[in-house]
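Running co-folding for 4'-deoxy-4'-aminopyridoxal-5'-phosphate.
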Amino acid sequence: MSIISYVNGSYVDHKDAKVNIEDRGYQFADGVYEVFAVINKQIVDYDGHINRLFRSLNEISLNSPIVKEAYIFHIRNLIRKNNIHDGLIYLQVSRGVAQRDFKFPTKIKPSLVITAKSISMENYYSKFKQGIKVKITDDLRWKRVDIKTLNLLPPVLAKQKAVENGCEEAWMIDSDGYITEGSSSNAWILIRDKLITTPATNSILKGITRTSLIRALKRKNIKLIEKRFNKKDIKNANEAFITSATQFVMPVIKVDGYKIGNGKVGKYAHMFKDAYMEAIQLK
Ligand code: PMP
C-alpha cells in the first residue's frame, strides 16, 4: 500500500510529494510545525497541539493557509487513507515560495505539508521497560525556543552527539549550568517524592505531553515543582524521565554515565506513564 501525504490542498502518493526549492521553509527554516501522536486511531491531545500551532504561527507573523477547523479533517483523512492504528502525524507550515530574500515577501501563500506514519506501541512499551540513557550537551539554540519553529539544527547536533555517546537523548544545559530540556523532549527528575521540571519560559518548548502529565499528576496529588535543575540535582535524583508526543513518558536510567537511582526503571515511572495514558483516555 502506498503512503499518502497532504501537500498544499492535495492528497498525493508520498514518493511523488514535492516542495519547491524556493520554499522559505527549505531556505530559511521560516516556518513552524507540530507532531501529533495517534493511538487506537485517535489523535492524542489534539486541542493542545493545534492551539500551540496557532500560537507558533502568530509568534512569527504567519497566517494559517487553512482555517483552524480544517486541520482535523485533513489529519483524520490521512489516518484513514494510511490505515494508521498507532502512529505519528507531522504537520508543517512554512511562509511559502518566493525568490530568496530575507524580508517577508508581500504576496506569498503559506505552504502546508502533512505526513503520517505508523508506530508500534509494543516498541514503546519495550523501550519503556529498558529506560533510556541521556547525554548532557550545550544548549546552542536561539532565545525563542518556546516557538516550535523548523529551526532545528542545534537539537539535531545535540541528538547526534547523544547517539555517538551511546545515548538515546541529549539534555541541553544553559550557560548557568541548568538543564533546559531534551533535544526533542521535556526533562524531569524526581528527588525523593518531589517531581521537578524546568519552568515553561522562553527557554523551553512547553510540551503538550508535559502539560497533560502535570494535569494528570495534580489529580493524583503528586508534588510537582517547576524549577530549574542542574547536574548536582541530577546526581541526587532517584528517578528521571522525558516526555514528548513521540515518547509519551519515558524513563531515564543514566545521565552522562551516572546511574539514576539504582539504574533501573523506577515505580514512579510506571505511575506517571499510567497517569498520562489514563489522562489521554487511552489506557
Ligand atoms: N521540547 C522540545 C525541544 C521538543 O522538540 C519537543 C517535542 N516536540 C518537546 C519538548 C515535547 O513537546 P510535546 O510534548 O508537545 O511533543
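Result summary
Residues 4-119 form a domain with the D-amino Acid Aminotransferase; Chain A, domain 1 fold (CATH 3.30.470.10).
The chain has a mean pLDDT of 97.
Job closed.
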